[in-house]
Amino acid sequence: MPVVPEREYRFASLLNPSDENYIVEGYATIFNMPYVLYEYEGIKYMEVIDRHALDNADMSDVILQFDHQGKVFARQSNGTLEIRIDDKGLHVRADLSKSEAARGLYEEIKNGLVTKMSWSFVIDTDEYNRGTHTRTLLKIKKVYDVSAVSIPANPFTDISARSFFNGVIEAEKQERLCQMARDRQIKKIKLLMEV
After folding, report:
1. Contact yes or no for 24/111 (Cβ under 8 A)
2. Domain boundaries, given as residue ranges, for the chain
3. What is the tens place of the pLDDT at every residue in 125-181?
4. Residue 188 in 3-state DSSP?
5. Which of 42, 47, 78, 179 has the fewest CB atoms within 10 Å distance of its CB?
6. Beta 89-95 vs 116-129: how paired, if at all?
7. DSSP code, position 159
């Protein structure tokens, strides 16, 4: 899969077939539920999506794909994809009846072969809490697609996590080293004063 550098990709939640013909529904993301995005040297770096992060996001003509690439199975502009923001998250409802490929994806979802979703987006505003190692996404600039995914723990999450957390990890490591150096210096001064 080609990675678009400015986009972030995240695994979301279950994708379920409905009782209606070729309709699937699910949540592309859930609000206010922290999840581990990245782990490094025993420290879990978390992420949470604020309830209002999508309030003014550009969600014009979002598409439904499989693994964020290839065919478009549903899209807003032709009415086969509906996305709406509710208190839980970004709800997705797709009509997969319009092409043979889309009906094939529906059958894979119905038979439990594909059960998860992901979404791709660009972040406008976020904040980071060093104490809890948690990044909060406050404002999403643009949502590109929602995707049914074959493997939820996909490489996109790791790639986008590293792009943010590498700088955070390095800064926190430097702070710990500086604090250790200060502590050693204070201890050395105290020992000299005792003599």
Report:
1. no
2. 8-194
3. 999 999 999 999 999 999 999 988 877 643 333 333 444 555 666 667 677 777 778
4. helix
5. 42
6. unpaired
7. H
